[in-house]
Design goal:
It is elongated, with a radius of gyration of 41 Å. The chain has an eight-stranded mixed beta sheet, covered by helices on one side. The protein has a three-stranded mixed beta sheet with strand order 1-3-2, with helices on one face. The protein is an alpha/beta fold and 287 residues long. Helix 4 packs across helix 5. Strand 10, helix 5 and strand 11 form a beta-alpha-beta unit. Helix content is 44%, strand content 21%. It has five helices and eleven strands. It folds into three domains: 72 residues; 71 residues, Ubiquitin-like (UB roll); 139 residues, Rossmann fold, CATH 3.40.50. The N terminus is likely disordered.
Amino acid sequence: MWKHRKHRSGGRRTGVKQRRSDRLWVRSRPAMKSKIPWRWVGRALMILLGLLSVLVILGLGALYLERILLRENSLFAIRDCQIECTGEALTPKLIEEYAELSGCTNLFALNIATQRASLLQKVPRVKSVEIARRLPDGLQIKVRERISLARLEMRGYYMTVDREGYVLGSAPSGARHLPVISGHGMPGMRPGSHLAGTPIMNALEVFDVCETTPLRDQFKVIRISVRRPEALELTLEHGVRVALSWQQMGTQSSLSRENLERKRGRLAEILKTAAARDKRVASIDMT
């Protein structure tokens, strides 16, 4: 009987040990699983660092080869520099000075984008610049100049402006044939200033239409006052004064130009009719 009890008590202990061992085994499995992702993360980081190191080495090697084979290669030294200017004021010598080409001796040491931006910023008269390499030792620069369309009347002097409204600088003595824009009330303008959105653009549009239409020889506008925002005051060659406005004025759109061309055609007809009847016209209201 006692043996039987011992056997039963021993069985309980064995069961307890088994259950405890089972519980310990179940708890240890998540700990083992949690170590596996960290190993992969470490390996991935090592691979990534290795790839980055290879890329850095390749980049440095490419820069070194570029410097040796291109920028410091005497084969690509600049020996033939051709500069072409289309305009009335800029010369190849001036462009060479502004571009500071004397300090650049190699074709590939010259940053074309930076040089183009520098010329456009330094020289307000430059409208566009084209720079091209002509291997092995040639450099070609083509400069397109802005053309003066009118003179802006300032206090005691004049400044020239092109069709797009860019101020080009002080008007030279040879620009006296250009028409005048007055009454703008804008002091302190400097070369390179852009007058977009100002009444001056309306006057420039009138000058442009008068110069580019087939009827440009019928009359000539010598002065435009922009002091009135609702209308321009034109002074023609023989002293006739014209108050002018048109639909879409100030928008600088194709529709505005069409309406202005119609007004210009009507003005030409009025002057032609008055001349045929031998009548002198002092002023015309075309608002």
